[in-house]
Automatic annotation (TrEMBL):
Nucleus found in the keyword field: no
SUPFAM superfamilies given in the database record: S-adenosyl-L-methionine-dependent methyltransferases (SSF53335)
Entry's Gene Ontology molecular function annotations: methyltransferase activity
Protein's recorded name: N6-adenine-specific methylase
The organism's taxonomic lineage, starting at the top: Bacteria, Thermotogati, Thermotogota, Thermotogae, Kosmotogales
Superkingdom field: Bacteria
Alphabetical keyword list: Methyltransferase, Transferase
InterPro entries, alphabetized: RNA_MeTrfase_RsmD, SAM-dependent_MTases_sf
GO biological process: one example: rRNA methylation
Signal peptide: none
CDD domains: AdoMet_MTases (cd02440)
PANTHER family with a match to the protein in the record: METHYLTRANSFERASE
Amino acid sequence: MLTITGGKWTRRPIKTTARRKTRYTPQSARKALFDIVDVASKSFIDLFAGSGIMSFEAMSRGAAEAISVDVSKKACNLILDNRNELDPSMNLRIVCADFRRAIPSLIRQGVGADTVFADPPFDEEYIEPLFNVLNQNPELINHWGQLIVETSEREKKTVLELSSLFQLVDQREYAGVVFSIMVRQ
């Protein structure tokens, strides 16, 4: 189980999946990130959502809406269960698809977000395909919106090399993960 770190659902538990491939952002890192990123009244997209914890953290802190994207049907069902446990009426949409298909599909539907958070599996060559899709579909992030990519220490330079449409404003390390915070220009 994970625990929401702030907002109206502070300390509420979130169920997790037993999938070996799923790695969760450490609680201290989540808290630190949401202490510096303001999501109140904004739209939030969580790519590689897993349990949906980042979407629930955003909604707990007053995000207007959130979209959780994950390729695993088990993960999508888990996000739905977690939403129903917290508040079935929350404005959280679940998209069960690979990010390479989900991003263009969301754009065709007119979706654009103020904050996009991406937490691909570490050291498995997802950073380049992620930025290829984002660079081809920049409308996913509203102008001056934020893109936050969580990586391992080894991948943080790759993020800088590939982020042609995004300006790095901060890069922080917490609990063994690196957050690269960028703004769409």
